[in-house]
Design a protein that fits this description.
Helices cover about 5% and strands about 55% of the residues. It is mainly beta. The strands form nine sheets. The protein has a 22-stranded antiparallel barrel. A four-stranded antiparallel sheet has the order 3-2-5-6, with no helix packed on it. A four-stranded mixed sheet has the order 12-11-16-15.
Length: about 750
């Protein structure tokens, strides 16, 4: 640790004091959306003689102009470029007007490695506004999800050859607040994002691999960070209705329409209901409320506060065995145990204070609190263990989460050198009461299998140094994480001692920008995912913070103004896989693994209003230290692809035709059971005017029979004398149509 610290300190001091800036003048400013006053991040700000910079998340830029530069150009995809005459004694305020999305505005720059992902999410959000929370995740290239317990349970997530369960290997956050639940009653890293109202999301920042210093636990396959609007462009009321008695209402109200540069506030609320396509109705209900307030205390200090409340309850038909459908015992949309389902709620408070010092240093301090309640009823094995009552289980918990983080960021400019230093620290503490696994019959309690209180703390610190000159950019960082685990078992008087562990995670990213159309990069880094507290405190626990080691080699290529291509070859080694066995209440370590693959991302603008995109992901996932032929990783995707064509106009007709494809893959270690792939087509068409919008969304327009969630499961039906191991699954939705009417004011 001392060696890393000394290295970065020496690099910092050398660049700060060994170079002297001459013949340059620093220009500072802020870029906002002219209508909503929303700060715009990653806007390209260029001087007339070629100097360039990007805005930060608050829309601020700091650029050094040469003596012969007297104007700036600010450009951002989806906005009209703005030319500004520079008054070198003033703080500039740049207002950008909305315009048609143009792929030619995307320029390959020597900038942070996450910039291209932010640009991609900006393109995709503009082309395909999401209709539900699940689609927020689907906008991440290569990320697939599956729902297998009605609409209220967190989705199963697949990314880069990982069956990440519900979030074990992907870190998810919103406005800097973690979504994942560590040591959750249903599995490590459980990420229920249903409390996010999709229309409030302004941007999706994402990255694949363990290369990002600011993201710690669970960031092995990647991370997804949602950001909500600070200011909304207009108020709206929206009503939707569709098949299966599906109904949704949404209201977003701008509370302070005047002087938004000083303060702004809005509130959003939604209600969802559906019976679902299953024979046993889901009676799914979800209520969401979200509010956000921004106050500019001064030109240098900003406070952002938000609060949200989410409540959901539902019934579910659960997973069904293949044999019961094939012999006609049940329909594809039937159930063996129709008493599955559950209820969950989450209430959040989040506050961020940001201050900009005279020298341009930004200091952010954030604190958050979550109250979380969860109860899930499942039956995976039917009558395998209890032939009389069945194998129904209840997983439940009540949790409080508190967190704090502080980040200091400063940019230095020295002639042709640029240095960006980031220092961060923070703490997250989870206190879970009555984490329970119980035997039940028809949701009636029988006996406890596990019951206890969990206390888990994670303290962290990191530093990242970015250096760029000319065509080169080097981003190096190091992160330190400390964990403390405690489990109080309420079913025994004998208690295991608490445990603690720490880990250091170095990261590096090197980019070389050949010109405005070609950039190559290499990334390498170490990440980790923590084990469940109940496993960690067991005296037989082997690994507490298993590491992940990864590397990417990629190219970003823009051969024409209307075509963008990103290709990356990658490798990831994991010290320990986690397999959660829900009905046993344990996380089973399954040894080391290796994944390697190729990701392809392509965006093409056919004409002024017509766009096409495609993402293709090839992965070879394998378990290590096991016999060849028995080294398949169950449910790990090997080939996935998403894409579509989009017609986008500012007014009038808009529409899209999109697809999702996943190839057949092994459901167990020797490929004797196959999880079936699928190809689905979705479509939407909207008629948009300034004051209203009418739309129709169509899902699975070919009415394909497909399996959504799939598992190798040993189970027994009531009339069977012996257990059967085969594919159990939840059926994917058939053809689904929904209409929408929205009013803007």
């Amino acid at each position: 640790m001392n060696q890393y610290y000394k290295f970065f300190s020496a690099l910092h001091l050398f660049l700060q004091f060994a170079m002297v800036s001459t013949a340059q003048i620093t220009i500072k400013g802020k870029v906002v959306d002219a209508e909503s006053r929303q700060p715009l991040e990653n806007v390209s700000v260029a001087g007339s003689a070629g100097t360039k910079g990007l805005t930060d998340q608050y829309g601020n830029f700091n650029i050094q102009l040469r003596k012969n530069e007297h104007s700036l150009t600010a450009s951002y995809i989806g906005y009209k470029p703005a030319d500004i005459n520079v008054d070198k004694k003033e703080q500039l305020k740049v207002e950008l007007q909305k315009d048609l999305l143009q792929l030619k505005d995307v320029v390959v720059l020597t900038s942070s490695s996450t910039t291209k992902f932010n640009t991609l999410s900006k393109i995709d959000l503009d082309l395909k506004p999401v209709r539900n929370t699940q689609e927020l995740l689907r906008l991440v290239p290569g990320l697939f999800i599956a729902q297998h317990a009605g609409g209220g349970k967190a989705e199963q997530i697949f990314l880069r050859g990982f069956d990440s369960d519900h979030g074990t290997d992907i870190a998810v956050s919103v406005d800097g607040m973690p979504v994942n639940m560590v040591s959750h009653a249903h599995g490590q890293g459980y990420a229920d994002a249903h409390f996010i109202i999709p229309e409030t999301v302004n941007n999706i920042d994402f990255g694949t691999g363990p290369y990002y210093t600011q993201h710690g636990n669970l960031n092995t396959a990647g991370y997804v960070a949602f950001s909500t609007y600070n200011n909304i462009p207009s108020s709206r009321i929206q009503v939707e209705g569709g098949r299966f008695n599906t109904f949704r209402t949404l209201a977003m109200i701008d509370l302070l329409k005047k002087n938004k540069d000083k303060q702004s506030a809005y509130i959003a609320g939604e209600f969802n209901y559906t019976d679902g396509p299953t024979i046993n109705k889901q009676y799914f209900r979800r209520y969401n409320v979200f509010g956000k307030y921004n106050l500019a205390i001064s030109n240098r200090t900003q406070v952002t506060a938000s609060a949200s409340s989410f409540v959901s309850n539902w019934d579910a038909s659960g997973q069904i065995p293949t044999r019961a459908v094939e012999d006609g015992s049940i329909d594809r949309f039937g159930a063996i145990d129709p008493t599955e389902g559950g209820n969950t709620e989450r209430h959040n408070a989040n506050i961020l204070v940001a201050h900009i010092f005279n020298n341009g240093t930004t200091w952010e301090n954030q604190a958050y609190y979550s109250r979380y309640i969860f109860s899930l009823y499942s039956n995976f094995t039917f009558f395998l263990n209890d032939p009389v009552n069945g194998d129904g289980i209840n997983q439940a918990e009540k949790r409080n989460i508190v967190g704090y983080s502080s980040k200091l960021n400063h940019k230095y400019n020295f002639n042709n050198w640029s240095l960006n230093s980031t220092y961060g620290t923070g703490l997250r503490y989870d206190a879970t009461n009555d984490s329970r696994l119980s035997n039940v019959v028809k949701r009636r309690f029988l006996s406890d299998i596990q019951l206890g209180d969990i206390k888990e703390a994670n303290a962290f610190a990191y530093l990242q140094q970015q250096v760029s000159r000319g065509r080169f950019l080097i981003e190096a960082g190091i992160r330190f994480d400390y964990f403390h685990f405690n489990y109080f078992d309420k079913l025994t008087t004998s208690q295991n001692p608490s445990q603690s562990a720490s880990t250091v995670s170095p990261k590096i990213n090197i980019q070389y920008t050949l010109n405005s159309t070609v950039q190559v990069y290499v990334k390498a880094g170490k990440g980790f995912h923590s084990n469940d507290t109940r496993v960690v405190t067991d005296v037989t626990a082997k690994q507490i913070l298993p590491a992940a080691y990864g590397a990417d080699l990629g190219i970003i290529f823009k051969p024409s103004k209307n075509f963008l291509l990103n290709i990356a070859a990658w490798y990831l080694h994991l010290d320990q896989e986690f397999v959660y066995v829900g009905d046993a209440g344990v996380v089973e370590p399954s040894g080391k693994s290796r994944r390697k693959g190729i990701d392809v991302i392509a965006r093409y603008q056919v004409s002024k209003n017509l766009f096409a995109n495609m993402n293709v992901n090839f992965t070879k996932p394998r378990a290590l230290d096991v016999t060849k032929g028995e080294d398949y990783i169950p449910l790990a995707p090997t080939v996935t692809s998403t894409g579509g064509v989009f017609y986008k106009a500012t007014k009038g007709l808009n529409g899209s035709l999109t697809y999702r494809y996943i190839k057949n893959r092994s459901a167990n270690e020797d490929y004797s059971i196959v999880a079936k792939g699928y190809f689905l087509l979705d479509a939407s068409i909207n008629y948009t005017q300034k004051k209203y919008e009418i739309g129709v969304a169509l899902e699975n327009i070919t009415n394909t029979n497909w399996n959504e969630a799939q598992f190798e499961t040993e189970s027994r039906l009531r009339n069977e004398t012996a257990a059967v191991t085969e594919l159990n699954y939840t059926p994917g939705n058939p053809f689904f149509a929904r209409v929408k009417f929205a009013v803007f004011f």
